[in-house]
């Protein structure tokens, strides 16, 4: 055996790896393969999401009932403050329905963003134990929120039908799922961006909360823009806010029996495509960095 | 530079390569309570104090590790605490990314760690299901694998209790059972066997042999060199992130134990000498990967005039 001497005076063994059979475990796969791997783990994502829906309320007396109670109480708080005390309900048709749609749907996005930001930090055990595309974690977080949204939507529809002024069911209600699907895609994009950002800079966890609160007050959740904004250009800009568009479209469909105009659909679709596509690529590019400590 | 030639160093060199590690370097930035270090500037230290941050220290966990493992090998890693054994396993598993270097593997390695508590709120059975899905099984496969996992782990009724109520031994047994359920070709074990009782050890050793006989490769980290001597065909001795020795398990483990024994007895000079001798008698590995870039035209050395 001919052994060449290394700089330490030790022998050097040369190993030549034949091409083809071995794959890198340290480099992220190309985007297409990454998507394929992720879709192969769809059962894992669903099981993880379902497990989290249940474990989130475990140990409480009312259990999964809190999935509905929490947004309802949220809505009640805002109703008392904004509807009764501050009186911003003037000029809004069916303020209760307006408020409930605002609170419930905004809650879905804000929780997706918040939990998504913590998904990599909270999933550290799984990351350290198994090799899977890490995008599965923020995806499972948003899936969990989507599952938790379903009973909330049920309650929302019942309340809209039951509380005065009662609304009638129209065929336009059938378009609500489409709005929710677009919102979910938007949420996933946000969760992916926030997950990578907080994994790199943990301090952002604290900043995101403030950002969400600012966004809440700026999205016409419990009042309408028309009451406070006179400037037409400013109003135009505010109306590009994706959350405003989601809430406005849902209210049109459920409360006002009108079809949202094509501009709203275009704005929401645009936001979803940009945030989801950009967020996914952004997350994928950081794939190798999520394992560290 | 001379053309690198294939050096048959191992008697099993004909077997296909399953894991190739090339010049892997890992550094960690970790918080340190050692305030005596004057490496940071005075303003930085004051800022750290005011913000309640701990000073950061750079720890070199691995400093240029290269090795090649083949089908049917079981490779033991020995070394003191903090020598980089567990880090190397996590790197091979692809769970962490090295600062420099490359790891190739023939299939997805499965790491069996001590610390992973999975989802502590969920029961053992639910964690088994989730773990199987995370490794890429379908729900039907995961359900089919459950009885075998439960039998191998053998933790009785506890399988239905939340995993946070488990003793460390029970958790380790369940994780071992989950990891081998996927029938991985490359299994990385981090000190798991130490936690079981005699009966479990026997079953897990049997399972490891089974894996290796299916042309798999097993990596095993253990503080106890004796375990490596008994279980492995080959051993790596790591010291401060460097590879001291790489060779037949018995030889390496004997040398390591003799060194560690001297160290424990306070014979520091003798131990240092032994370490140096061992290091000199060892060898370095250089791994040559195929050029990943597509070569236009015939390679230069093959061109004829």
Can you walk me through this structure?
The complex is a heterodimer of chains A (293) and B (305). By secondary structure, chain A is mostly helical. Helices cover 64% and strands 3% of the residues of chain A. Chain A has 11 helices and 3 strands. A two-stranded antiparallel ribbon of chain A has the order 1-2. The longest helix of chain A has 28 residues. Chain A starts with a strand and ends in an 8-residue tail after the last helix. The N terminus of chain A is likely disordered. In chain B, the strands form 2 sheets. In chain B, strands 5-6-7-3-8-9 form a 6-stranded mixed sheet, with helices on both faces. Chain B has a 3-stranded antiparallel sheet with strand order 2-1-4, covered by helices on one side. Chain B is globular and about 55 Å long. In chain B, 44% of the residues are buried. At the A-B interface, β2, β3, α2 and α5 of A face β1, α2, β4, α3 and β10 of B.
Task: Provide keyphrases for this structure.
heterodimer, A: 293 residues, mainly alpha, 3% strand, elongated, disordered N terminus, B: 305 residues, alpha/beta, 9 helices, 10 strands, globular, disordered C terminus, transmembrane helix (chain A)
Any chance you could write out the topology, listing elements then pairs?
The complex is a heterodimer of chains A (293) and B (305).
Chain A (H helix, E strand, L loop, with lengths): L3 E2 L5 E6 L6 E2 L6 H10 L1 H14 L10 H20 L9 H28 L1 H6 L6 H27 L13 H25 L3 H14 L14 H7 L3 H13 L7 H24 L8
Antiparallel strand pairs in A: 1-2
Helix pairs in contact in A: 2-6, 3-4, 4-6, 4-7, 4-8, 4-10, 6-7, 7-10, 7-11, 10-11
Chain B lengths: L16 E15 L10 H10 L4 E15 L3 E5 L6 H8 L7 E6 L4 E3 L11 H11 L4 H15 L14 H14 L4 E5 L7 H16 L3 E5 L3 H7 L2 E6 L2 E7 H16 L3 H14 L1 E6 L17
Parallel strand pairs in B: 3-7, 3-8, 5-6, 6-7
Antiparallel strand pairs in B: 1-2, 1-4, 8-9
